[in-house]
Amino acid sequence: MKLLFIGDIVGKPGREVVCALVPKLRVERGIDFVIANGENAAAGAGITASIAQTLLAAGVDALTLGDHVWDQKGFEHEIGTLAGLCRPANLPASNPGRDHLIITKDRFRLLVFTVLGRSFMGAKAECPFLCADAMLRRHAGRYDAAFVEVHAEATSEKQALGWHLAGRAVAVLGTHTHVATADATLLRQHTAFMCDVGMSGPHESVLGREIEPVLGRFLDGLPRRFEVATGDVKMSCAIVEFSGDGRATKIERMSVPLPKQ
């Protein structure tokens, strides 16, 4: 089987490249499951119900979120209506929304959840290691393989979580930094791992934002509005191949440009 994991969708350019490429890749690469991080899909910060529905209708099976989950006003009232979307699992239990998804293909059940890192991150989150353990225990018997996204800043924390879950998850893939890493690998006991899949959106940018305002902020420290950029739009993603017993056999990092009109 194959799963496609798409890194942070940034603004309208990110939405456009995902909607254009997902149907095509599903057919060409024989993709069974499509998972995407959508936490920056609305103007580069957060997501809305209408945007989530558009991405799900384009062929994304599961939308995950990160530390910008509540950036769009009123989304805390919308999240409960979205069946194909889950918030980070290690946010306080009082937060609204699903903390996991179980998606199926030909009766194969894939558990999907995200944990937030705690190193250099501002969100209030419980221990990602203990949360991941609890999620796997809680849903034991309800899934055939587990996909874990680690939305974190520190590569050390991401690597540690990968080793912690080796042999218990089919894949542990990272998001948040918007910069793809070159460490796609299979850990022991056939768990696919990558520190960061990268972002889907405008790569002629600074992390998806227009270059000049960000550069100016670094030069003089004055506040500026960071609009989403528009140039060199690509979808950063990874394809994980795995066997019917939930053991990863291959991971491929990809950066696919927006098709020319």
What secondary-structure arrangement, pairings included, does this model have?
Elements: E1 2-6, H1 11-28, E2 33-37, H2 49-57, E3 62-64, H3 75-78, E4 85-86, E5 101-105, E6 108-116, H4 128-138, E7 145-151, H5 155-165, E8 171-175, E9 185-187, E10 191-194, E11 201-204, H6 211-220, E12 231-242, E13 248-257
Parallel strand pairs: 1-2, 2-3, 3-4, 6-7, 7-8, 8-10
Antiparallel strand pairs: 1-12, 5-6, 9-10, 11-12, 12-13
Can you give me a brief rundown of this structure?
The protein has helices at 11-28, 49-57, 75-78, 128-138, 155-165, 211-220; strands spanning 2-6, 33-37, 62-64, 85-86, 101-105, 108-116, 145-151, 171-175, 185-187, 191-194, 201-204, 231-242, 248-257. It is of the alpha/beta class.
Key features of this structure:
single chain; 261 residues; alpha/beta; Purple Acid Phosphatase, chain A, domain 2; 7-stranded mixed β-sheet; 6-stranded mixed β-sheet; 6 helices; 13 strands; globular
